[in-house]
Design goal:
12% strand, alpha/beta, globular, Lambda Exonuclease, Chain A, PCRA, domain 4
Amino acid sequence: TFRNDEIILTLANEISSVIRQDAKVHVAPLVARNGAGPGELACGVFETQEAEAIAIAEYFAPKWFSSERAGQPENKRSSFAVLARTRTQIPEIELALRSANIPVEVLGVGGLIHVAEVADVISLLRIVTDPESGAALMRHLTGPRLNLGAADIAALGRYSRSLSDKSRENSKTFIAKIAAGNPLQEEADDQFSGSIIESLDEIAEADKGAFTQIGYTRLTNFAADLRRLRSRAGGPLVDLICEIEDYLALDVEVLLRDGTQNGRRHLDRFIDEAAKFARGGGTVSEFLTWLDVASDEEGGLKSGAPEIRRDVVQILTVHNAKGAEWDVVAVPGLAKEIFPNKGKERDSWLSNEKHIPFPLRGDNHELPSIDISQCTSNTEVSKKLKEFEGECDKQKLTEEIRLGYVAVTRARTHLICTTSRWRDRKTALDPSALYASVLEVAKNHGGIILSEYELEDGAVNPKLENPKSEMWPRDPLGIRRKEFDEANALVRQSAPHDLAHAEEADDQSWIRDAHALINEMKTSKERASVFLPPRLSVSTLVALSENPEELALSIRRPMPRPQDEYSRRGTVFHLWVERYFGQATLFDEDDLDPIDQLEPDQTLEALKASWLSSEWGTRHPHAVEVPFETIIAGVLVRGRIDAVYKNGDHYEVIDWKTGSKKLGESAAIQLAMYRLAWAKLEGVDVTKVSAGFHYVPTGITDRPSDLQSEQDLIDLVEKH
């Protein structure tokens, strides 16, 4: 191999020796490249996961902050990674690295959702969309934004229960009236409420005396913010996430914590994942369900090889590390049942329905098989099944060893492998067979043994014996509170500055920052002006009439228009009509009609048959797919007319609609524009041109009689 140094290859060969012995074909051990360095292997057994994480940070720190590394160009600096077998190991290691002032990036959706700032966003998403997300609400109520104490949370709980009790009383009256033949008209869902989130909607009616003054103020303000965020829930997913990020002031927080280069990396990656999901048409609730699946799927969702960065330590699962390599790698958690991972379920397709039957898989020749055709009794069948389950367990262990092989071979020059005796359980865990291989190679080939913690008789888990305690409500500033208060008092006591020119460079910098902040605040309060582009499509003209505010947002922040199978099928139908008349043309995406949505139950063949049986199927058009450009109030409007029929000196413009739902009044602007455009193209008076929508599925042709005139269209454009 041309990747790993010598001691790392020795460990890889030691781990793979068991697999190579059982392999059906001969696999030679790995051989180091010419000029490979000796490499460095460190290992250790520690008391707790916290001690293990701190040891990894202490091993990384001198290598990360070395003067030799700092003197190299950024793209030549050594890269670092932590490869965890399970995502539950990630938060402790992330905390230890941050405490050592080492920047961190957590990769993979499953790990990303546990990063503090991303978890805060997800909590707000749940609160906005699900009134039963009490756990998410508690995270926010006790978080740095609201930071409520026990008294106010208890008062909110009592108020929520009082609303629930009142609702139950109402429901008893409701049931009694039904029995008496006089039911109320309200929906049943309106009769049963009582979640703590729903109680916030009525917090203004609560007894103020039950809360502290500051607590009640924070709750009422949060209730107003929650209503505002809910109003955005029906819009684009990414926009809602950005609103939540702005509400939580996360942008400022992460930039202060990690700096401008790396501060936003987790938020930006989360927004990227949300944008990818939204492009498929998913809702906020579906996105949250997808995140739950990503969290539960221990191996992580399928993804490509990670992009290696040299400005952060990347933390990810071993599964997600395949295909990548780093200079310095840590592999924690080499304990029995953790790595190799025992798992919660067996990998047998006979007892676990998640697995595809082995005979149907392409790699079935490598998997255990079972044959009960020769069994003559239930006892023999049971014996065969037991043997098969044992072979499946052995196969799973083999896959875990292969995963361990993948983990250690991700390191080029430095590798640290660790484990801890105590984790989140009452019983201690011994080091695993993988760690035994690491220890043997370290002892025999000059590796570094950092710790060999041994259990004492009668030892108990320190986490259970001395559980960690914290003050609550928690002060987000912690030990920095005194320094913050002193700085705040100094600012308040200082005389205002006129922000005029200063001699000192530092003062000039502060003045520029102050002006920038003031301008930013002014801009945020001003309503931005959005101007119509000089070139519009007809559908944009319809949007201008229907919802000018939404159109302004789309112009200011254009987004790609999603194309699903139904809209594509509608496009194919229009092409078929062209070819049917033998007048095929070329047109681009701007000419397609975005307000014409094909319904899911309509197939292309059904549309063809319906159209052929209509009055238009037997008539020959005067023209089809006619492109046009015309000026309305100084703006160029372009579009394409589906079909024009001539009757004497009169023309009728027809637009095909592949949906059966009748369009609203604003859509008639499309016909008015088509009618005007054809009149100008043909050089006839607009009164000699009529227009209509033909709804293909129903065979109905709608001919509005009060289409807008040219002056009406000019007024529409000039108005905005």
